Amino acid sequence: MDTESAMNMTESVMNMIPYLHFTGGDYLVFKALQPDSAGTLTAASIVLICLALVERLLMAARCSLEARWSKRLSNSEVASNSHQPSLLKVQEYSEVSETASLHTVPPFTPTHEILRGFIYALRILILYVLMMAVMTFQAAYLISIVIGSGLGEMIFGRFSAIKHSH
């Protein structure tokens, strides 16, 4: 590390305010993003609200997809098992199936797993960006993230509740 970069890092650390504040000038994720006026601070807050909304949307989308995949899997199991010749075998199978289904893992379906992984990675990226915004101690950012998360839960929360209702 050369002297110039060490001085630049020292200056940026000295400019950080270590308590909640509403003053501008904090870096937001990148060095190029440094809202310092009321207008740019408002725009950054709106972007953070939208990011928090998108995070809740992705969570709802994942839960809805998993509910759809689970329903499709259970429908295919019922259809494949509907060809049992006798009632006794059906009763025996349903008893075994009930206990077995409590301990089974859904089959590996590459398209489902890739999509699940992509959604998860995107959510984590957004959550880390939001965390970095909160770590600036800029109160407007914190309030924006809380508002965006609350709005997102109000709008999309019922979709993520589908997963937990079964």
UniProtKB/TrEMBL annotation:
It is a multi-pass membrane protein. It is found in: Membrane. The chain crosses the membrane at residues 38-58, 125-147. Its main location: membrane. It comes from the Eukaryota. One of its GO terms (cellular component) is plasma membrane. InterPro entries: Cop_transporter. One of its GO terms (molecular function) is copper ion transmembrane transporter activity. Keywords: Copper, Copper transport, Ion transport, Membrane, Transmembrane, Transmembrane helix, Transport. Belongs to the copper transporter (Ctr) (TC 1.A.56) family. SLC31A subfamily. This is Copper transport protein.
